[in-house]
From TrEMBL:
GO cellular component, one term: cytoplasm
Subcellular location: Cytoplasm
InterPro entries per UniProt: MnmA-like, MnmA-like_C, MnmA-like_central, MnmA-like_central_sf, Rossmann-like_a/b/a_fold
Residue ranges of every copy of the tRNA-specific 2-thiouridylase MnmA-like C-terminal domain listed in the record: 269-337
Source species: Candidatus Kaiserbacteria bacterium RIFCSPHIGHO2_01_FULL_53_29
Lineage, top ranks: Bacteria, Candidatus Kaiseribacteriota
Keyword Signal set for record: no
Name by which UniProt lists this protein: tRNA-specific 2-thiouridylase MnmA
Site entry: Interaction with tRNA: 123, 321
GO MF annotations, alphabetized: ATP binding; tRNA binding; tRNA-uridine 2-sulfurtransferase activity
Residues covered by region (Interaction with tRNA): 140-142, 294-295
Enzyme class: transferase
Catalytic activity, as annotated: S-sulfanyl-L-cysteinyl-[protein] + uridine(34) in tRNA + AH2 + ATP = 2-thiouridine(34) in tRNA + L-cysteinyl-[protein] + A + AMP + diphosphate + H(+)
Keywords: ATP-binding, Cytoplasm, Disulfide bond, Nucleotide-binding, RNA-binding, Transferase, tRNA processing, tRNA-binding
Amino acid sequence: MNGQKIFVGLSGGVDSAVSAALLKEQGHDVVGAYIKIWQPEFIECTWREDRLDAMRVCAALDIPFREVDLSDEYKKSVVDAMVRDYARGITPNPDVLCNRKIKFGAFAQWAFANGADLIATGHYARTDNKKLLRARDTAKDQSYFLYQTPPVALANTLFPVGGMLKAEVRDAAKRFGLPNAQKPDSQGLCFVGEVSMRDFLARFIAVERGVVVDLNGNGIGHHEGAALYTVGQRHGFSTDSEGPYYVVGIDVSTNTVCVSPRREDAAKKSVRLQEVQWINDGPTLPAHVSVQARYHETPVQAIVDGSTVDFELPHIVSAGQSLVMYKRDVCLGGGVISQ
């Protein structure tokens, strides 16, 4: 594998920078590539600083710097899709879309068309014989967001920091003398910036104050816009009675949010999935698997059979989110939770 040309997606952060440094140290022909994504005019974002940090990393490592503008693709495939989902009252997962459509879609295609043998990113995940595995650092593991990665792209992608702990990555950044070794990790969606999701979405869809109702349909409080809420949520709305109350239903057509004092009323025994994607051929069905319906939640046991998932115990899920399936550390695939 030594000597191959590898395009590393540089975000300006430390994880992708260390990935590039490790690959160069291994003797590869490394190219640093910065992906420019869509940014709304009404929000301040750090993309200029991130781009400059990526350029500085390339200079420090003495590797070529390339830039690819995927703004249009990002706006269409990620932002517009996210806004449409919120308008339908479901909670999307833009990180999954970004990985599938941009990093391992448009960027991968561009890199291979420009001479790359492989691509690499700073994601915390591992691969083994075309399998996708959790990262060694379970607190940073990002395999949940990668289950929709196109198989061809996954087979030609390296995750150099996937076998490292975050502290080891920081130490490596210092050892390599990287200019962003002390840079804090990024938080949230860059294109949303410092504004609230409510203010961002209000630029695209109607987000209006509405009524909070109980399970009997009685008005008991107010919310800031039904599209903003997620099943299981217990903050961001007011009620006439002392709580806590949990969101158990959302109706954007009437702009109402239904709540209950019982958290278990938000849980389901089974769900149906759409856009199911298996890594390789997937398991023999029906299969006993562990699943995550949210990033970083503790996996729970379930049985999957086609597009139906039956939980061992009732579990809170949100339409639009990804339900990702595992067998120990191996990510088997997943799907999008249906309404």
